[in-house]
Amino acid sequence: MRIAISQVKSSSKAEIAKKHQHLVFGRTFSDRMFQCEWNPDLGWHQPRIVAHQPLAIAPSANVLHYAQQVFEGLKAHRRVDGSIALFRADKHAERLDRSADRLCMPAVGPELFLEAVHTLVDLDRDWVPPVGAGSLYIRPTIIATEAALGVRVASNYLFFVIAGPVGPYFPKGFKPVKIFVEQQYVRAVPGSIGFAKSAGNYAASLLPGRNAYANGCDQVLFLDARERRYLEELGGMNIFAVIDDTLVTPALSGSILPGITRDSILQIAASMGLHTEERLVSLDEIVKGIEQGDVTEIFAAGTAAVVTPIGSLMVNGTTVEVNHGRVGQLTQTFYDHLTGIHQGTLSDDFLWMTTVASKAKTGKVPAKAKRTNVRARKRPAKAQVKAPAKKIRPKQATRR
Ligand SMILES: Cc1ncc(COP(=O)(O)O)c(C=O)c1O
Which CATH architecture has domain 3-166? Predict the structure, then answer.
């Protein structure tokens, strides 16, 4: 599909550099956004890049009343060779379509998803922070826009993509966080939409999150809905524990989001020869394991924070310290390995990075251009979309 690119005033490099110095997660956005509509007759149509701007949707739009919405969160990283690359964008495209299917929404398909993301990041490439200073967080979203009240599947949708530079997800950076173990409220129930990345799941997590903050914790850990016995996940991250030298994470039960970072860590761990298990993990096993010294590390993983060490769990008002509140060795190893792959200081052996080719025109009307300020951009060749990042000398991640 040809993406029309509107003329948009780009921020100057100096303005962007100033913003890069004070990055709070999710507060700063790049100059442009992608938009594309769907209806039953035309399917996805009119893909375009326009200025980042408010949306005009009817107050009766389905998304505003019944939360027919799905989204993704992925990142573009600045690499040490100056290039910009996306981390596992194909997997985010697949997950968006799986989420959309559960919410009765039309699939975007990997081709349109990748083209939208590559074109937007290419045009707004100056917004990707320097190596080590952060990354460009990308938020593809589909919303139901049909203007009609009544609980039913909508017949009109908008797919949009926005992006913005981000620093650390947790204001404290890569430091152990305090986790509140939620035993009253649940995030998602079996058979519902927990495995989908959809707004309703996050709405359900707000009150428990507020309770966690009120108790001096940084994040909330949800337990299973049936028994309140087994670990599920955090509000926006999956959870791992190192138990007797085995890397253990809750199995994907249907109510847990299948994290792409989670999958990456499991693959890295296996490549290191570490034993991994995806299974039921009870809170009891964790608390007893910490007391007995079998549970040596707990950490969370997700796109926003990559890897976050967990320093303590608050269970029924009692704080249980993990690894004496220090960052565990494997936690540090996974963080270093993933950020090394992102930045291009470690070999991308899994071919997870895709370089964003520098080819889009900025939309600036050249002197001799026709009067129209919208022009089509050639579709990037498939090879450019899929090309793996150039490999560099491998530096082995070691288990310390
Ligand atoms: C509820 C939830 N769990 C887990 C994750 C981690 O998923 P990923 O690693 O794909 O970002 C996220 C973030 O997307 C999330 O929102």
Answer: 2-Layer Sandwich (3.30)
